[in-house]
Amino acid sequence: MTASSAARSTSSTSHTSPSSHSIANSSFGDEARDGAGDGAAGGDRLPPARFAFGARTWKEVAHLLLNLPEALAGFLYVSLWLYAGVLTSLTVIGLPLLAVGLMGARALGRLERRRARALLGLRIEEPSPLSRQSRGQGFFPWLWTTLKDPVAWRTTLYGFIRLPWGVLTFALTLCLLLVGWPLLGYAARGMTNLDRAMVRGLLSPSSELERRIAELEEDRGVVVDTAAADLRRIERDLHDGAQARLVALAMGLGLAKEKVLEDPEAAARMVDEAHGEVKLALQELRDLARGIHPAVLTDRGLDAALSSVAARCTVPVSVSVDLAERPAPAIEGIAYFTVSELLQNISKHSRARTAEVELWRKDRRLLIQVRDDGRGGASTDSGSGLAGLAERLGSVDGLFEVDSPPGGPTVVTAELPWRGRTAG
Amino acid sequence: MAMDYGRDYGRAEARRAHRVPAVLRAPLEGRTWREFLYLLLSLPMAVLTFSFAVTMTTAGVAMLITFVGVPVLAAALVGVRALGAVERARARSLLKLEISEPEPVRAPNGKRGLMPWVGALLKSGVSWRHVLYALLHLPWAIGAFTVSVVMWSVGWALFLYPAYWWMYPTWWGQPGMQIGAEPGHGAGLFVDNPFEIGVTCAAGLALVLATPWVIRGLASVDRLMVSALLGPSRLAERVWELEEDRGVVVDTAAADLRRIERDLHDGAQARLVALAMDLGLAKEKLEEDPEAAARMVDEAHGEVKLALQELRDLARGIHPAILTDRGLGPALSALAARCTVPVQAEVDLPARPAAAIEGIAYFTVSELLQNISKHSGARSARVDVWHSSGRLMLQVWDDGRGGASTAGGSGLAGLAERLGSVDGLLVVDSPEGGPTTVTAELPWRG
Amino acid sequence: MRVVIAEDSVLLREGLTRLLTDRGHDVVAGVGDGEALIKAIRELADEGALPDVVVADVRMPPTHTDEGVRAAVQLRKEHPGLGVLVLSQYVEEQYATELLAGSSTGVGYLLKDRVAEVREFVDAVVRVARGGTALDPEVVAQLLGRSRKQDVLAGLTPREREVLGLMAEGRTNSAVAKQLVVSDGAVEKHVSNIFLKLGLSPSDGDHRRVLAVLTYLRS
């Protein structure tokens, strides 16, 4: 569990960093393009007049200038309620005052995170709200939870140390703005970097648990949404497939029924058609049912189910399942659909000549490996089928890794948390 | 989703009204004596924990300069945590406090070995909260012990005085209990005439009646201390809850799919197989025996209509199309129209919530209405849906015979679990004799 | 009778075409989605050859939700004389209400299953084309169940309820008589009893009676 969460957290950071890179890249790209435009247009007409700095720098400058009013207001607020609260805490009324002040501090933090997002392009996740259980349980639990809220206390600290820094940055930026124009860009970047570090250090949901909570909440959302989408898809498939076919069939039979005595020839043809239809409808229902949850998986488990998937694959597949007992139905289902989607991918895109599926258990994890000798080049980039699989597995604390150099071979390894039948 | 609702209704045992008022009951109640026992045991436990924690941690901290300090400190923390486990067990059994074990010590990044583990132990907030508990608990335990023991024993002693008053003159050679005797200042007062005995007894009774509430108050502070300092942290609890939720969601989704597959298999597919057979036979018979063939075609025709009906019901159970097309309002009024009990449905929403939330809300109402038409004996029902401060609220009311509950294993319990797994809530108010109001709450996602 | 069919499943579209052609009707166009349907009708109307009736599926591309109902409502607004019969895999009272809004002439809303009873289905198409109504029994059951006038409805005898239901489906008196295997006169008597109990003014003509009943149930 820890291994996976650590691995996932690194993967999640690597998810966020490319996006910030891409923002940076695109803005550099703009400048580069402008420059090229200058060169090309130099001979004909004057380049369009523009501010010396890009929008990014201006935003940073705005942030630095805003630091002063923010720091003043924040410091004033924080010190006021803190002194008032701590002093009156000696009597009884101080504690609620302190708690209300801390809630205000949380709001301050939210404001600051928003400002950093707008002006510094810094995306900080919101810390998890105070637990819902304490809500509606009465006054004292609320008081207690609020008073020991680490997020609010860290924001308080932030409010304190901001004052000198706010004054400094404001003064420095103003000076540079007036007299030190050439240095402004560099100074703004340097100072905002320190700002960024402060916001990241004091206003982010820092603890491992906070991160885990954010991750789990997202997971749960993904799982709920996929489940709902699955149901809608099944309903659609039923409607467009078997139901439509049956209506046609019913109509044909209705006609045949009328004709059977008067025009046996025509009736015979219709009955024949209907017979063909019903077989097709059955086939469709069977495929749909298999796509929903194959009966053989419920009855016999992964080994039998995967063998039957392998048998339907256009590429020869060898399957080896090494499990002493069956995992929980949900895990079994996810494992099955992972392999079946991977095999579909192989027969569609890989041009492999053979493939291999292996399943085994290691400690508290169920491991799946699918190998093929196709042309490789598969990746979990967004939009691909593999990305969907990776997300689905991630939402149950699973892992999904693709090793597929161009030219092959491709090895896909998936890991699921093991849950036994009785425990699950 | 085929659940047993039958058990929900008609179980309101243990709700008998007590004839004796709570004030008179308290001194003899099990709870009072359990809490008193807890406070009694607190003293030796607190002394033990305090002395252990103080000696070991100070020793450990003092020796930190040398290499030996770390293992000593680690041992101190392990010991304090073990004592904390005993304290939790004590609180669970005597105070009926629901408290789960705090998160175990885990080395970061799944590293193995003793050193990372010791590091995690020393860094873990849980360990230090245990130490804090050990320190804070002793003064409190002394105070609580003294107050409760003195009040309780004096109370009973005075209250029972009439019962053992005769012992004074017979065995100890004095007229009665002696009050206010000071050395050198006379003998004070002997409680020996009926009036004085009566007053003493009354004072004892007052004390006996009051002490349970004092004990309760003291135990509440203990409860707060144990759950705040020895329990899992708020975040750890939330993680645990979310992990559980996600498991529930995954399992229900998987179970839903299996159910659909089974329904398809047992319903439409089976029927189609029969149909295919009929048609095959009819095809053969058409030429030789047109009459028989006509009959078979007729049967097949009936069969296919039934199959269609079944598929339609199944599809509606999976996800009603009108919900996707028109949202909760029309979907719920369609549901209400199909209920055997007259139902009035009101939906007042500013916008459509996310598809998943809509689906959960729909199926919640659907199950509640099924419940009503099957078990409640209601003559009318009402469904209200509205949006309130970031939550989607559902209320289903009926005038049936009540007695529904979310006790374990029932259909309502399953529903409550399902809602809980997405941070929702299900509250059932169903006094015996009705009416029943079920209120559900879901987080609003747009 | 000239018919336009809108149905995205080719199988069903062809089946319906065959079925109607077989009965001597003229299928002038077959389309696969709501927009195409509206376009086809407009073109036909421009040529002065408006069809008698449109048979449309509810769920069609591109959104696969309720295109058919929306197209039907729009067509009825544009061409009041055009009969519209909506077919669906499932029936919802809500859609019936939307279709009946405005005027109840020339409207039909049936479960797709009903095509199995070929004769009845074709009857319904013809009825709608002639300005009558054809509501699915399931819709009628929902209408009866949801009606706010439960106490009045409770005053009907079981037979009268049956007749009321069949009338609400849009059947003529003689069709009701045939369905219940009784004489026309007996149905006539039931009908006048029903009108008396519901407090509706007696009117002649099957269409108008049906309308009166539907209006009553929906109010």
From TrEMBL, chain B:
Organism superkingdom: Bacteria
InterPro entries tied to this protein: HATPase_C_sf, Put_sensor_dom, Sensor_HK_TwoCompSys, Sig_transdc_His_kin_sub3_dim/P
Occurrences of domain Putative sensor (ranges): 38-230
Transmembrane regions listed in the UniProt entry: 36-55, 61-83, 131-159, 197-215
Catalytic activity: ATP + protein L-histidine = ADP + protein N-phospho-L-histidine
CDD domains the record matches: HATPase_UhpB-NarQ-NarX-like (cd16917)
One of the Pfam families matching this protein, by short name: HisKA_3
Descriptive protein name: histidine kinase
Automatic annotation (TrEMBL), chain C:
Modified residues annotated as 4-aspartylphosphate in this record: D57
CDD domains in alphabetical order: LuxR_C_like, REC_NarL-like
PROSITE patterns tied to this protein: HTH_LUXR_2 (PS50043), RESPONSE_REGULATORY (PS50110)
Sequence ranges assigned to domain HTH luxR-type in this UniProt record: 149-219
The entry's keywords: DNA-binding, Phosphoprotein, Transcription, Transcription regulation
Response regulatory domain boundaries: 2-127
GO molecular function: DNA binding
InterPro entries reported for this sequence: CheY-like_superfamily, NreC/VraR/RcsB-like_REC, Sig_transdc_resp-reg_receiver, Tscrpt_reg_LuxR_C, WalR-like
Protein name: DNA-binding response regulator
Source species of the chain: Streptomyces hiroshimensis
